[in-house]
Every structure is written in structure tokens, then in C-alpha cells.
Specification:
There is one protein chain. This protein has about 350 residues and is an alpha/beta fold. It folds into two domains: about 100 residues, no CATH class; about 220 residues, Vaccinia Virus protein VP39 (Rossmann fold, 3-Layer(aba) Sandwich), CATH 3.40.50. Helices cover about 40% and strands about 15% of the residues. The strands form two sheets. A seven-stranded mixed sheet has the order 3-2-1-4-5-9-6, sandwiched between helices. Strands 7-8 form a two-stranded antiparallel sheet. The protein starts with 14 loop residues before the first helix and ends with a strand.
Length: about 350
């Protein structure tokens, strides 16, 4: 999603508080609007029977309560919005649709693509690291926690990567897919629940010579996609879902949905600023246990032996991000982790 940008803060701020505060403390001007949260994909009406008019009214009230104004008249000397109100706002589709309406106008008038969530450097690292990982897997080598994924280009890379179907969930402006195309991937699809985000991503791809990238309107939490993909990318989407007031429930919905989008033998790559590598691994293990328990209950009712194979297995993570020390622990502001779909 768009309209927010990250900035670094002192390491004595908790990761989640920093993500919320940073996501809202620097809304930028007309000539430099941010499309920083381009991977975010959340929807307000889950668990609700409100109609569109009511959701728009709720969004307007949330914006008012948070003391936010439209991007065009925001300046840094205004009071910063309340973190809790902002985290609630991120669940409203009307908020993001309005933000992308501004971004589309800015693109059409000035040609600006906006910023990349987590920054261009992180996006480039994610793309090159993912390429190296997929090449290794294509050659039958699956890294473990000790082995580092090494990006060594070869003439076979493009041929190997051409067979990978790629899905970027919550694609926003679609720039991550453009970067993956530069790395040699060719079967590329981006989805976002905001139609305006999809319009912006398609416009940018056409302008930049990547008209082969497909963009679709789709919500990851209740996806209409029936295809399975060998590589699924998430850059900030799980973060945004976690900031919603119903975040814990929605994260469970996320894993149920994503597990159906990643093909067996495929890879899920998550980039997060709210969760560490270990926290993401723990969340996947919790999902695995939940799925195994459900399968056991179903099979027990059929008097058959249950399946005990976990859906996801941790493969590797990016080791090149800068780290910091706080409270005796070493961490990073960004984590990129890959999981293999069994």
C-alpha cells in the first residue's frame, strides 16, 4: 500500500512501535509522495457486515480521530497521529484507495513511481538473493541454516528461472516484480486488493518496458486465485495484517490462504520489519502444528492414519542486512526468510 514511508529510529524503540510510528510520521509532499508500503494488503470488512458507505464513513472518522489530513496539506510541524488509531486505519480499504488515487495523479502529472517499502537497497537484496535461492533449488540443492545462499551468475540462470511462476502478494506499485524481471524471472503476477494500486503498477510496468507482468485485483486473505505458484513473495504484507486490530486472527487467515497459493516444492519468501527471523520461524511452526492437528482430527474421524508432514519448512534467510545490539540480543530492522512448501 502507499502513502507511508519508513525512516530509521534509535534501536531502543520496540520493532512494532517503530513500524507504526515510522509508517505515519513522515507523510510526504505532492512531489514526493511515498508508495513505501507497496506490499501491504489488508481489507477492512473481514468479520463485518458493514456496507461500503458505512466503511467509508468509518474510515473518515478514523482519519479524523487520528488527526491526519490529506497528503497534499500535511507538513512535518503538525501533530503526529496516535499510533493505535493509525494501526486501525490501515485496515480500511477507503484509506488506501484514497492514497493510491493521489499516487496515480502524482504519477500521471510528474511520472513519479514513489518509494519502495523498506527502501530500494532492501528490494534489490531481496530480488538477487531470491534468484540465487531459486537457482540452487532448481539444481537440486536446498540450503540449510548453516549454508549461505550465494548469488553467482551463470548462463543457465535465465533458463532455470523461466520455469518459476512468481506471485507477489500485496504488490502495490509492482516495483519488486520489475526487479525480479531484471534478475531473469519471466512468469510474473502481482496482486493487490486496491484496484488503484493495480492500475498504478500496470502503468509503471508498461512505462518501464515490463508489459509482460500481469497484475490482478485480489485480496490475499480471501483470494480468488486458483493457481499455485512456485515462488510467492511477501514484502510487508504480513506486517500490515499484524497491525490491524484483528491482527492475530487475520494472520491465521493469511497462513491458511498462502499455504494454498504456494505449490508443493515451491518457496515462500517473506520480508518483514515487524518480525525477526526467529519470530517468523516460530509463527510458521505454530501454523504447521495447527494444520497437523486439524489433519489428525479429520483422519481420526475416518479411522485412518493422519498426515504428520508440516506444510512449511524453514530454508534460509538473508544474512547481509545490518544488525544492531539491544538488551543483549542481536537483531536487524529487516528480516527476509524463505520457507519450502512440502
Amino acid at each position: 500500500m502507499a502513502g507511508l514511508r519508513l525512516q530509521q529510529e534509535d534501536s531502543d524503540v520496540s520493532q512494532q512501535s517503530r513500524a507504526v510510528a515510522l509508517a505515519t510520521s513522515d507523510l510526504v509532499s505532492d512531489d514526493d509522495r511515498s508508495v513505501a508500503a507497496d506490499s501491504w494488503s489488508i481489507k477492512s470488512e473481514y468479520g463485518s457486515t458493514l456496507d461500503d458507505d458505512q466503511r467509508h464513513a468509518d474510515a473518515a472518522e478514523a482519519l479524523s480521530n487520528a488527526n491526519l489530513r490529506p497528503n497534499s496539506d500535511y507538513s512535518s510541524d503538525k501533530d503526529e497521529p496516535d499510533s493505535e488509531a493509525v494501526s486501525s486505519m490501515l485496515g480500511f480499504q477507503s484509506y488506501w484507495d484514497a492514497a493510491y488515487a493521489d499516487e496515480l495523479t502524482n504519477f500521471r502529472e510528474h511520472g513519479h513511481a514513489g518509494e519502495v517499502w523498506f527502501g530500494v537497497d532492501v528490494m534489490e537484496v531481496v530480488a538477487s538473493w531470491t534468484k540465487a535461492l531459486c537457482v540452487e533449488i532448481s539444481q537440486g540443492r536446498i540450503p540449510n541454516d548453516v549454508d549461505a545462499v550465494k548469488a553467482e551468475a551463470s548462463e543457465l540462470d535465465d533458463k532455470l528461472l523461466s520455469s518459476w511462476s512468481v506471485l507477489d502478494i500485496g504488490t502495490g506499485n509492482g516495483l519488486l516484480l520489475q526487479e525480479l524481471a531484471k534478475q531473469g524471472f519471466s512468469d510474473l503476477t502481482g496482486t493487490d486488493y486496491s484496484e488503484r494500486a493495480v492500475n498504478l503498477a500496470q502503468s509503471l510496468a508498461d512505462r518501464d518496458g515490463f508489459s509482460n507482468i500481469k497484475f490482478l485485483v485480489d485480496d490475499v486473505l480471501e483470494t480468488k486465485l486458483e493457481q499455485e505458484f512456485q515462488l510467492v513473495m511477501d514484502k510487508g504484507t504480513l506486517d500490515a495484517i499484524g497491525l490491524h486490530p484483528d491482527g492475530p486472527v487475520k494472520r491465521m487467515m493469511y497462513w491458511d490462504s498462502v499455504s494454498k497459493l504456494v505449490a508443493p516444492g515451491g518457496i515462500l519468501v517473506i520480508t518483514s520489519c515487524n518480525s525477526t527471523k526467529d519470530e517468523l520461524i516460530q509463527e510458521v511452526e505454530s501454523f504447521n502444528q495447527r494444520k497437523i492437528s486439524t489433519a489428525q482430527e479429520i483422519e481420526a474421524g475416518k479411522d485412518e492414519e493422519s498426515c504428520r508432514e508440516p506444510p512449511f519448512q524453514y530454508v534460509s534467510h538473508v544474512r547481509t542486512y545490518p544488525t544492531f545490539m539491544f538488551g543483549g540480543s542481536v537483531g536487524s530492522r529487516v528480516a527476509t526468510v524463505a520457507f519450502l512448501r512440502k
